[in-house]
Amino acid sequence: MNLILFGPPAAGKGTQAKRLVDGRGMVQLSTGDMLRAAIASKSELGQKVEGILQRGELVSDEIVVALIEERLPETEAAAGAIFDGFPRTVAQAQALDAMLAGRGKQIDLVIRLKVDDAELMKRIAGRFAESGRPDDNPESFKVRLDAYNSQTAPLLPYYRDQGKLVEVDGMASVEEVAAQIDKALGAAVS
Asked: Does residue 36 have a known ligand-binding role?
């Protein structure tokens, strides 16, 4: 099963993905984690990515697609992949579809965590106060949220037209969101 968790930054995708990794043996492909690892490596790519994220901009398709493609064999040896933070554009979705098709795979389900932008801003301010993570800076987050709404939200019709999109209430408790996701996964398998 290949699954996309879809929603803006701080919507809870990472929390739900970790639950699915632990409970179902899937591999989480979090572009955020991959990009933070690149930054931590202090490589040339990491320094470039750091500047892009601090400005609140999206990392290029070329960089992100290469990071994802590198990890696909790992997902095939497991129970499937959870794409978290990818794809972000229709071009990335098409690249992902082509990569998977070349391996005889596809995206089976897209789960959108529907959330309220104002509540997300409150969440991120609290998270930044606790973690101090540069990409959780409220000013940078606002830019990321605007980028999501203008560039990534257009993916909804792309997956809705394929009959793969399921929406869940991302403002519910972690447990309620998990139950809604489990129900969607059960329906997709049957």
From this structure: yes
Does residue 182 lie within any of the structural domains?
Answer: no
Query: Any residues with CB less than 8 A from the CB of 128 and at least 6 apart, and which?
Result: 136, 137, 138, 141
Residue 86 among known ligand-binding residues: yes
pLDDT at 135: 67
Kindly state whether residue 38 falls inside one of the protein's structural domains. yes
Q: Residue 105 annotated as binding?
A: no
Percent share of the chain, pLDDT over 70: 98
Q: Does 142 belong to an annotated binding site?
A: no
Looking at residue 75, which CATH number applies to its domain? 3.40.50.300
Domain encompassing residue 132: 2-177
Residue 185 lies in a domain: no
Q: Per-residue pLDDT tens for 16-27?
A: 999 999 999 999
88 is in an annotated binding site: yes
What is the reported pTM?
0.82
Is 133 labelled as part of a ligand binding site?
yes
User: Is 85 one of the annotated binding-site residues?
Assistant: yes
- The residues, ordered by sequence, that sit 6+ positions from 95 with a Cβ below 8 Å of its Cβ are 61, 65, 87
- Give 89-117 pLDDT, tens digit per residue: 888 899 999 999 999 999 999 999 999 99
**Residue 57 labelled as part of a binding site:** yes
Residue 15, annotated as binding a ligand: yes
